[in-house]
Amino acid sequence: MIRVGVIGATGYTGSELLRFIFSHGQIELTYVTSYSFAGKSLPEIHPHYRGVLEHVCASFSLEEAVDKTDLVFCALPHGEAMDLVPLLVEAGLKVIDLSADFRLTNADTYLKWYKKEHCAPQYLGKAVYGLPEIYKQEIKNASFVANPGCYPTAVLLGLAPLAEQGLVDWETLVVDAKSGTSGAGRVPSTTLHFPECAENFRAYKVAEHQHTAEMEQELGRLAGKRVAFTFVPHLLPMVRGILCTFYLRPTVKIKENEVWDIYREFYRKEKFVRVLPAALMPETRNVYGSNFCDIACKWDPRTGRLVILAAIDNLVKGAAGQALQNMNLMSGLKEEQGLQLVPLRP
Amino acid sequence: MIRVGVIGATGYTGSELLRFIFSHGQIELTYVTSYSFAGKSLPEIHPHYRGVLEHVCASFSLEEAVDKTDLVFCALPHGEAMDLVPLLVEAGLKVIDLSADFRLTNADTYLKWYKKEHCAPQYLGKAVYGLPEIYKQEIKNASFVANPGCYPTAVLLGLAPLAEQGLVDWETLVVDAKSGTSGAGRVPSTTLHFPECAENFRAYKVAEHQHTAEMEQELGRLAGKRVAFTFVPHLLPMVRGILCTFYLRPTVKIKENEVWDIYREFYRKEKFVRVLPAALMPETRNVYGSNFCDIACKWDPRTGRLVILAAIDNLVKGAAGQALQNMNLMSGLKEEQGLQLVPLRP
Amino acid sequence: MIRVGVIGATGYTGSELLRFIFSHGQIELTYVTSYSFAGKSLPEIHPHYRGVLEHVCASFSLEEAVDKTDLVFCALPHGEAMDLVPLLVEAGLKVIDLSADFRLTNADTYLKWYKKEHCAPQYLGKAVYGLPEIYKQEIKNASFVANPGCYPTAVLLGLAPLAEQGLVDWETLVVDAKSGTSGAGRVPSTTLHFPECAENFRAYKVAEHQHTAEMEQELGRLAGKRVAFTFVPHLLPMVRGILCTFYLRPTVKIKENEVWDIYREFYRKEKFVRVLPAALMPETRNVYGSNFCDIACKWDPRTGRLVILAAIDNLVKGAAGQALQNMNLMSGLKEEQGLQLVPLRP
Amino acid sequence: MIRVGVIGATGYTGSELLRFIFSHGQIELTYVTSYSFAGKSLPEIHPHYRGVLEHVCASFSLEEAVDKTDLVFCALPHGEAMDLVPLLVEAGLKVIDLSADFRLTNADTYLKWYKKEHCAPQYLGKAVYGLPEIYKQEIKNASFVANPGCYPTAVLLGLAPLAEQGLVDWETLVVDAKSGTSGAGRVPSTTLHFPECAENFRAYKVAEHQHTAEMEQELGRLAGKRVAFTFVPHLLPMVRGILCTFYLRPTVKIKENEVWDIYREFYRKEKFVRVLPAALMPETRNVYGSNFCDIACKWDPRTGRLVILAAIDNLVKGAAGQALQNMNLMSGLKEEQGLQLVPLRP
């Protein structure tokens, strides 16, 4: 049994990590910390864990972490992880960081998008970007993984097959993203107050969302050149799920069925990406609670545009599920171990 | 008092028409018909009307319609309206048709998008397109108005100021639309079954929605040339509201504040279009139950794109409210008579 | 035109008051205050008011209130109203207080249920309890009205006809109440955080809700004796609406249709209480946004119990709409003036 | 590996059965039938099963069922199961029937509540009532189990500890139940049409729900006498979850903590019933997607009433999860095998 710890178990991402750790089968939860709820048991923080996992959350201690675990998931907020993660890495632990702090490789880019100086710039670029469908080999050899954000996961999986083959005319790319509210975390705010959110729909951070940097960095790597595109996120009156709609013109003449083929080929061996049958479209509910990403495409002959659609559960493939997938790879386990859950529908 | 009738009072659009007719003040409901519920009173069909409007629905009779009304709202489904509307027009009644049957001016286009032969092609082009913010003068003089669809209303209001000035590079235009479920009407279906819809989000009729024809016809008229763009509608897990996000490159170099100015100027005299203050974004809840359309714009300097956002209540500005607005204009009443309702929030 | 003020326009109740004031027709909003948003305009606080009401909120000043208004609605939170309301009353203004501070007539009861010493006990019992269907005459003559709470309104309207005739065996009465989230107000909290509330249902303050005192006081007055019953509120994953289900045994043998008759007779002249046709049941959506209370009953022959059901919109008949109804009565206007809105459905 | 079949895989219950069968580990799905979708693969019926379970649904054949399975779950609608189940039982298969057809032991009661003559009355009383927390031993020895309904499961688990000890004054019992929409099944109807259900709440089948018979039969058995009580179900604007609120007077003087103790003792060995810590209350979200039943109690000293609350996921502990629990018991497996899923929250 691999001994794993969760640093920051209070939030939604932490809670989801616990869910997958509990049912994994080959790992053991040996250390759980919470800053705001130290001393409380998991069911006191997450009442649905009663009778399931009843660990008491500790205050973080590096010594204890090193002593008790082989691998830690760090589920701290952006800006807080960067203080702690380097210590864990230095101490020789395997680390999967779910924050944004080590996804970007450039400190200036971090400052520009997160409006905050990075406090451990020497660690930027040290983590492997934990998107297993693209960096599987690197992740297998990694001891420090930066787990992708929820929007970047949907966007990269949705575009990678075309990007890698140079088929995206980047000038034409628009990404219209829609997310459930759990992506914004567990801290109450006016924006996420039930009466303000229910029966309401709106865009936010229009063309300014901080995840844009991460997406452009990674798509640029796949494309072999700098890329920039317009990304607009919207808030859905629901809890879980991201659907991204991509609009682009291909660089070459291509038929819809050829595009489907490219996607099927690219994800041929992947357990968690489902390229749908032609004519079907992704629905967030079909991936609810699961680690799947559903993808479809549609050719618009009237405008010469490709429309690509990708759906994930933001808390699973967009966070905790993907982190477990990375852990499996880093630990030599079966990639899908503990992640073969059926989506919950209805 | 103007005597008005509602042909087809069973559906959601019919129900909303009744709401606005009830509180209008200068019109009187003198005739209501329903095909499926003839002989039933309004509260038997729409229980919230108990104690408000208790008319009994008749089966349609042309004679009665002519005898009892000065103006009729026709709220029949697409494909059924075209049988009836010509009779009403011929009989000399003022007619506002809320179906799609007389919005297109070309029978071939109708066949192509609605997959049905038009049975009264000689009436195509005879109706004034009832978007008051653009065709106010024509509507004032009209006796036959084709009331715009919900998506077209949001799209046309969102693009008209730029389209009219030739500022849209049509090649670059993408419209990503999201609608609540009431737009799909009152007939139950698997797609709109509560457990299938709630906590779910998906696209539908990707790049193939029949309203595309109407939008391109009207935008083409404003632009002075044929235009085509990609339109993708999505289904929101909520009841009312449409938000459209438009992505386009302008034809000339232009600053964000100039765009705001163009919108403010264009809608300067309009009571129902609210160009928001810079930095604010439309939310569907801010127009809930009202005849408002809220619009904002955002310049993305990284990609040279303009993002425009427009929100309406699909049943009000996208259907019944707009129909009343047209009726006011056709009848020489104040344009906003009976439509000055505060949006319902929360 | 009557000049009215709203003290505390920031919350949901304040916002609803503004909605009804705007469309009333015979009153004028001359004074609006907000503690937390003084200096801001209404659209900055409630964005849906843009282009509708654009007053700037003042800090409260007694002098200004007296100078500018004939009647004020006080929409301050419980515990804050009691500081201010006596000043307004003393100054000779007509006052409708929407807080709980002057509904109870006994300072000990206030302390017991609100866990707070009342700071103006000499005013307890001075306000008329503003439930127009029961105290119409008193309200007409009143200059100080305590507007009932949302649960008490539904409970009192649901039970008054039976209580008044001595038909309730109080020992057997159980009230199971369910409310939308807007009743809890506009301040964000974990409980009302969208991801915690959506797709969730729970009871709260089981048999301990502070409104119980108010209901028992008023039902006791109708019954002519002290009464006590079990009241359990629940939180619905929706925004507006209260449905109460009452279970009781009648004191005498009575048939279901006789119960219906008692209700119809009791509310015969009332514009805002709709006793449904037999076999129909209330739905919150049928009163959404309106001042209606819908009531039905059902006899359970197997157990000798009556089940009564009553639905209101908590922000309207349960707060702002009822306050306007009281204002109409206090001001000699038509009771339904400005309140004849059709419920919003769907 | 035990070979299991699912008769009627189209509905929500069938879909949930598949979910638990998939992740069970010691059983194998060898036969799946669907009347309405024979010839279709599971992902064509339930798109979230793509890449998970891809069996093609057969038309039912008794021969095949016998040939291919050791145990079958029958998930046919009430009234259809009674034609088929006797054949399966006769053929020597272990049968778990999820319909209501064999839960009642009396044909007259069936006729009275289901308004339909039972076509296999000789089988009434032959099935073990599959509530493992009460009939564990009988289920272990059974080859034919009638799986309880969703409301009965919540009601029986909520009352069994008190009923068994004779502590319920049945004259005083009221059960106010609230259910998500998935309990009504997958067939679209006006009632469950999204725009009719969302932001709406109502009671239905007031004091007339057909499950009442089943609850009274089973509670009567526990109480050792005929019992009758008032049961009122309500429809929640959400997908999954039942919360029942019970109101009763105890037959003896008893303190709240003694009630808690009775519940804790009664369910001491049960894996799926969580008696909450005092002061906590059940929330449907805490059992979402899981086989848990959460229970709490509250003493109302003012009225001498006990309030009990119980929450389940109607599709899991109220249907498919419980069926698997029964299968485990009937097959000599660990009772919780394949059912140890963490509730999905948020």
Topology:
The structure is a homotetramer of 346-residue chains.
Chain A: E1 2-7, H1 12-22, E2 27-33, H2 42-45, H3 62-68, E3 71-74, H4 81-90, E4 94-97, H5 107-114, E5 128-129, H6 132-140, E6 144-146, H7 150-164, E7 168-179, H8 194-197, E8 202-203, H9 211-223, E9 230-235, E10 242-250, H10 256-266, E11 273-275, E12 293-300, E13 305-312, H11 316-330
Your description of this structure?
- The structure is a homotetramer of 346-residue chains.
- Chain A is an alpha/beta fold and 346 residues long.
- Chain A folds into two domains: 2-126, Rossmann fold, CATH 3.40.50; 151-314, Dihydrodipicolinate Reductase, domain 2, CATH 3.30.360.
- Chain A is 31% helix and 21% strand.
- Chain A has eleven helices and 13 strands.
- In chain A, the strands form two sheets. Chain A has a seven-stranded mixed β-sheet with strand order 8-9-7-10-13-12-11.
- In chain A, strand 12 and strand 13 (305-312) form a beta hairpin.
- In chain A, helix 6 (132-140) runs parallel beside helix 11 and helix 7 (150-164) packs parallel to helix 9.
- The longest helix of chain A has 15 residues, at 150-164.
- The radius of gyration of chain A is 20 Å and the shape is globular.
- Chains A and B meet through strand 7, strand 8, strand 9, strand 10 and strand 12 of A and strand 7, strand 8, strand 9, strand 10 and strand 12 of B.
